[in-house]
# Entry
Amino acid sequence: MKAPPALAGGSEVTIMKHWQDSTNAVLGVWLIVSPLVLRFHGDVTALANTAIVGALLLAAALGAIFVPRAWEEWTETALGLWLALSPWLLSIETPIAKANSVVTGLVVLTLALWATQDYETAAGEKVPH
# Structure
């Protein structure tokens, strides 16, 4: 969704707001509570990873909602990629923790790239169909 143009410093700036950021904020909260809900809080590495990434994702998504900038989408992209790969990079053994990280990471990655494509389209760049 595109908000109306705002005047900043004498030039017109288009501010983009995305439903994907709200969804990523909810996924950030999910990551924070998922070790307790899915009962893998005994796996300290998985617990720390999901809680830290969840807090960072929540902060980036809220930043993207309230002060939209394209770099926040790239931050969410990096967090999604890390989350999807981290079970192998951190040797997480708990199957439910591994599945939670991979699935949530891929969803975050997809949503962030989708929102990034919206920025590129709004900037007038050609996006292949």
Summary: Residues 1-15, 125-129 have pLDDT under 50 and may be disordered. The beta strands are 6-8, 11-13.
